[in-house]
Design a protein that fits this description.
With 86 residues, the protein is of the alpha+beta class. It is built from 1 helix and 6 strands. Helix content is 15%, strand content 26%.
Length: 86
């Protein structure tokens, strides 16, 4: 799910949790248009530094910018050694 290493369902099953604007877009460009069941996506670093960050992407009125403001930031933090979730 959006290239995450782990998926934690917050209310119910993780499958079918949200609708993407374009299912063929790479995770870094994902736009979520509807959320049925919230999930927390976990991204693990190759070389952990023992710290973690929670990334809360923007949007919300019409769509969630999950790729640009979630996945991209989480992967950048991974390169710095942080375990990140969005």
């Amino acid at each position: 799910m959006l290239g995450a290493d782990q998926v934690w369902p917050l209310h119910g099953a993780a499958t079918g949790a949200f609708t993407l604007e374009d299912n063929t877009a790479p995770p870094e460009q994902a736009v979520v248009t509807a959320v049925e069941r919230p999930v927390l996506l976990g991204y693990a670093p190759d070389r952990p530094n023992g710290r973690a960050m929670l990334v809360l992407g923007g949007g919300g009125y019409v769509a969630l910018m999950a790729g640009r403001e979630g996945v991209q930031i989480a992967r950048w933090l991974n390169r710095l050694g942080y375990l990140s979730s969005c």
